[in-house]
Design brief:
This is ABC transporter ATP-binding protein. By secondary structure, the chain is an alpha/beta fold. It folds into 2 domains: 4-85 and 156-238, P-loop containing nucleotide triphosphate hydrolases (Rossmann fold, 3-Layer(aba) Sandwich); 240-277, no CATH class. Helix content is 40%, strand content 22%. It is built from 11 helices and 10 strands. Helix 3 crosses helix 4 and helix 3 packs parallel to helix 5 (140-152).
Length: 277
Amino acid sequence: MHLIETRNLSYVYRGSVAALSNVNFIAERASRIAVIGANGAGKSTLFKHFNGILKPTSGEVLIRGEAVTRENIREIRKSVGLVFQNPDDQIFSPTVEQDIAFGPMNLGLDEETVAHRVDAALSLLGIEHLRERVPHHLSGGEKKRVAIAGVLAMEPQVLVLDEPTAGLDPQGVASLVEFVNTLPQKYGMTVIFSTHHVELVPEIADSVYVMDQGEIVAQGSVAEIFVKDDLLARTRLDVPVIPKLLRSLRDDGVDVEMAYTFGDARRALTDAYERRR
């Protein structure tokens, strides 16, 4: 039984605009999954089906083997937390503390449990100092962390991040990557994120889905996807800089192993240098 599964999922917006077409997607427990594609590929629309914000035109969405229905939608939203691309779409309370508490309170939890979850989420995101701040006076990166904390306070099994690095500076991106990578290992949480910035993908994903015009056109590991130059060109994506550089060195006769993350590339280049000495 998969944690999330879509079967031939299709969705048509008003005006007969097909946003998704026969999408088959699977997410397992404690996995890191990237959904990549150019703007308008259908990533956000797909994500809104995972916790019932949108209802399929045809096909179905299964969470732990159960179809999403009106009767179980409350339980589904406990399990699958969605962080929107723009945190201003998600943050609305007078203070950060109240905003993070909103979700747990709506689960009907007692005050002590809510307070504990708020404290834990603030600590996990490193934003304890923002507790009493007005959310809309925060920076973009701070707002993003508050939005994530609000979702995590509901203790979901799945964290879905729609373009999580949008509006973040390089330090904010690095901090987000480090944080997200702890979730599957430390908490057993599945992380699903969308992006059209391919440089992020090898650092934060184990498997990749490629979307184009509402369809999933490829699925595989990072290594399997980023050797498909024709596919990436057709979907208006590119190969990340690190494997592109190493491939160029190999073409020039340098005996270096392929790598996709910064750490793996550093080790590969060090080994190649030692062999040449």
